[in-house]
Amino acid sequence: MIGALELGLLYALMALGVYLTFRILDFPDLTVDGSFTTGGGTAAMLILGGTSPWLATLAGALAGLAAGTITGLLHTKGRINPLLAGILTQIGLYSINLRIMGAPNLPLLREDTLLTPLRDAGLLGSMVAVAIFGAIALVVKLVLDWFLHTDQGLALQATGDNERMIRSFGVNTDRTKIIGLALSNALVGLCGALVAQYQGFADISMGIGLIIAGLASVIVGQALIPSRLIFWATTAVLAGSVLYRVAIQAALELGLDPNDMKLISAVLVIIALLLPRWSPLRRIPTLRSLGRSAAVEHSGGGR
Fold it and tell me: Would you tell me which of 205, 272, 291, 300 could form a disulfide with 219, CB atoms 3.0–4.6 Å apart?
């Protein structure tokens, strides 16, 4: 189960990227399946070539950023449907990833990576590693929280809420969309680079179906913490990513076939979407309603 916690915290970076496009920008971005492999493949290739793991990880994030920028340009400048723009970039990235990697699989087992000190010290699979991965996810979350409260971040939120209205105020919504997609896929590429180093290899198929995991993390987390405040929404995404991995691990330990993981992921998303609409559960107070009630009682007591 410790491994599930580690993976949940690593994949939380990808989930934050999906949250940025799916919830903030209201953009169904399918680039994720390709940009995740692009980040992992780029980092693995550079590490095998002797590049510092830090620089290789940064390069993986930049490769993801470039992929997101292409999707943004296809949509905003080429006027291509958002869904189709993401699919086109994703399909193109499959061939690009093979070009980058030079082979379908790149093993990193004997290479120095960011996780080599933890692995050599026998700390992978321990609560120390969970704490380190949790700290990394928390720092990225706080930086994203800060960005979404800057002028550019507020423009990004407004573009997702009401594009026509924010454009009437003189905001260049094409630019905000490109920035949002680039940042989202930079997080996905960063996650791919870290996961490749964690599992000890990069594979051409490592990103296939990953968008479902990202959506499951966002939807499951926000079903538990249904707040529109950025701080709580991103916290919910982190919690959702961990819960999703724990649920997958629990399903495996119950003896389910690993080949059924995609089906299990889809079922989890369906359950997370349907449960909040189930009338008995709607009567259960959420964190937001509890907070609102507490505020009312506090203001009433202060009169």
Answer: 272
